[in-house]
């Protein structure tokens, strides 16, 4: 099964950003290295993006900001791994809106639920409007 | 004649003159979800077909990245529109209601309006427990059932009406009598429990089970022209035993056949129970934890009594003596005060 492997500091960065934005949805992009043969997606860089909707129920990134991020990924020879966003009040599963707006077929969609006291990180491929959950692993740095 | 362009950082050679719209079509990119730049300038969607590619053009495109927490369909948004426009509720609140799982114990006088209003509100999963069959004497107040349902299992009659009210709700039925051997397993799947039972042994069993499982319990009872209601939040406020340590002694209250109840009171109190459940789900308002609402239908008045958690409560106190579920013997006299 495919696996999203987050560096511990990336996990914490995403969590902190999500908590800071609560009750509004937080969003961002994860870049890194894809080992296709092994089905492993390693995070190396997290881009914290603005949610232009500033809403507890929706998120939308600013296209100009996305262009800058993709440019940076190309410059640093990083693979585009994942789009993440938080669900401040609901479970970590893709909503109908998440599915409809999953325009990157090959990206991992990471959802962070802050509904309970303990955060919940879950990741999905969403292709042909069908979410398929994959494992999330947090790598402890040495 | 071929020209060389760059697309998202990669060099491409295109063999014929294309415009941007044609290029996107060749790349199988949906222009509706795409933002395109040429040489660092955005090209509006409506102008893609007008812009012909030139040698050395640097094309960049991204797809919209967005989404939301909503799982509501267009039809649901319309159905629940009167909820969604409430500032305190919104789509977030409605989503919580949809995600909620509520168990209503008793599909009778109290259970009927509770279940109806929770189904109407769109509670995603509604469980119903009742082992009884519809009787003519029920129809004066148990509005989930009709004359045609006489003799039917209450849970079957109830499910049919609730599914007709709102097909989006998953109704799960338990055609069984709640006892100490099944209560834990039944309540485990639910977030909030509603007491609509008609006897004290089950009332106390349900209280104890909810306290031990840490499940909120919306507790109510009706009798003659009065009703009462409180919300039990284990660990935060009093449980039923903090208020009434044990069932009334046999003979202390009128028999079930003698007492009677004004049917509409079931509607009043049951609707208040549904209101409490929706408040617990959405976090709106202040639930009746540590407070008991007492209703007098004769002069249509409500009064509120403060009820406190007891440190010496047998089940939720500092040194509980009831650590395993127990059952009282059911007798006709113990149907009073709890008549639903």
Can you tell me about this structure?
The complex is a heterodimer of chains A (142) and B (340). Chain A is built from 3 helices and 8 strands. By secondary structure, chain A is of the alpha/beta class. Chain A has a domain of 89 residues: Cytidine Deaminase, domain 2 (3-Layer(aba) Sandwich), CATH 3.40.140. Chain A has a 7-stranded mixed β-barrel with strand order 1-3-2-5-6-7-8. In chain A, helix 3 links the parallel strand 5 and strand 6. The radius of gyration of chain A is 14 Å and the shape is globular. Chain B has 340 residues and is an alpha/beta fold. Chain B has 2 domains: 61 residues, Beta-grasp domain (Ubiquitin-like (UB roll)), CATH 3.10.20.30; 236 residues, Rossmann fold (3-Layer(aba) Sandwich). Chain B is 29% helix and 21% strand. Chain B has 11 helices and 14 strands. Chain B has an 8-stranded mixed sheet with strand order 9-8-7-10-11-12-13-14, with helices on both faces. Chain B has a 5-stranded mixed sheet with strand order 2-1-5-3-4, with no helix packed on it. In chain B, strand 1 and strand 2 form a beta hairpin. The longest helix of chain B has 20 residues. Chain B is elongated, with a radius of gyration of 29 Å. The relative contact order of chain B is 0.12.
Write the layout of secondary structure elements.
The complex is a heterodimer of chains A (142) and B (340).
Chain A: E1 3-7, H1 8-21, E2 27-35, E3 40-49, E4 58-60, H2 63-75, E5 79-87, H3 96-100, E6 108-113, E7 120-127, E8 130-139
Parallel strand pairs in A: 1-3, 1-8, 5-6
Antiparallel strand pairs in A: 2-3, 2-5, 6-7, 7-8
Chain B: E1 3-7, E2 10-14, H1 20-26, E3 34-38, E4 41-43, E5 58-63, E6 66-68, H2 74-79, H3 81-84, H4 90-99, E7 101-105, H5 111-121, E8 125-129, H6 154-165, E9 170-174, H7 183-188, E10 192-195, H8 200-213, E11 217-223, E12 226-232, H9 240-243, H10 256-259, H11 263-282, E13 291-296, E14 301-306
Parallel strand pairs in B: 1-5, 7-8, 7-10, 8-9, 10-11
Antiparallel strand pairs in B: 1-2, 3-4, 3-5, 11-12, 12-13, 13-14
């Amino acid at each position: 099964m495919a696996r999203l492997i987050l560096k511990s500091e990336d996990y914490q960065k995403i969590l902190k950003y999500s908590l800071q934005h609560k009750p509004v949805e937080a969003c961002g992009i994860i870049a890194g290295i894809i080992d296709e043969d092994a089905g492993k997606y390693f995070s190396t860089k997290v881009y914290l993006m603005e949610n232009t909707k500033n809403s507890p129920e929706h998120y939308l990134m600013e296209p100009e900001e996305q262009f800058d991020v993709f440019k940076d990924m190309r410059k640093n020879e990083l693979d585009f791994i994942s789009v993440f966003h938080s669900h401040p009040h609901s479970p970590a599963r893709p909503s109908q809106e998440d599915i409809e707006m999953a325009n990157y077929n090959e990206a991992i969609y990471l959802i962070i639920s802050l509904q309970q006291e303990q955060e919940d990180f879950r990741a999905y491929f969403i292709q042909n409007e069908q979410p398929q959950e994959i494992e999330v692993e947090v790598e402890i740095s040495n | 004649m071929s020209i060389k362009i760059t697309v998202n950082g990669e060099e491409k050679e295109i063999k014929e003159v294309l415009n941007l719209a044609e290029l996107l079509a060749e790349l199988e990119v949906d222009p509706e979800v795409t933002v395109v730049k040429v040489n660092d300038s955005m090209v509006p969607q409506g102008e893609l077909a007008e812009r012909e590619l030139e040698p050395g053009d640097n094309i960049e495109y991204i797809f919209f990245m967005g989404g939301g927490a909503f799982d509501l369909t267009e039809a649901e948004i319309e159905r629940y529109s009167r909820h969604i426009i409430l500032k305190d509720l919104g789509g977030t609140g409605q989503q919580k209601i949809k995600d909620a799982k509520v168990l209503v114990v008793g599909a009778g006088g109290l259970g009927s309006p509770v279940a109806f209003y929770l189904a109407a509100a769109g509670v995603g999963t509604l469980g119903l427990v009742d082992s009884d069959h519809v009787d003519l004497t029920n129809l004066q107040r148990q509005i989930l059932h009709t004359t045609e349902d006489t003799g039917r299992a209450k849970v079957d009659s109830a499910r049919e009406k609730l599914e007709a009210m709102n097909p989006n709700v998953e109704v799960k039925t338990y055609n069984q009598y709640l006892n100490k051997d099944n209560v834990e397993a039944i309540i485990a799947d639910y977030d909030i429990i509603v007491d609509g039972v008609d006897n004290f042994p089950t009332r106390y069993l349900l209280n104890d089970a909810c306290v031990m499982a840490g499940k909120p319990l919306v507790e109510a009872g009706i009798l003659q022209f009065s009703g009462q209601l409180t919300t039990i939040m284990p660990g935060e406020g009093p449980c039923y035993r903090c208020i009434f340590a044990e069932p009334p002694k046999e003979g202390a209250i009128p028999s079930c056949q003698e007492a009677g109840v004004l049917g509409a009171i079931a509607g009043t109190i049951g609707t208040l129970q549904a209101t409490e459940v929706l408040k617990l789900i959405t976090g709106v308002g202040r639930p009746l934890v540590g407070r008991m609402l007492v209703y007098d239908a004769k002069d249509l008045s409500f009064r509120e009594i403060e009820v406190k958690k007891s440190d010496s409560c047998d089940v939720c106190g500092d040194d509980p003596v009831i650590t395993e579920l127990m059952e009282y013997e059911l007798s006709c006299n113990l149907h009073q005060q709890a008549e639903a």
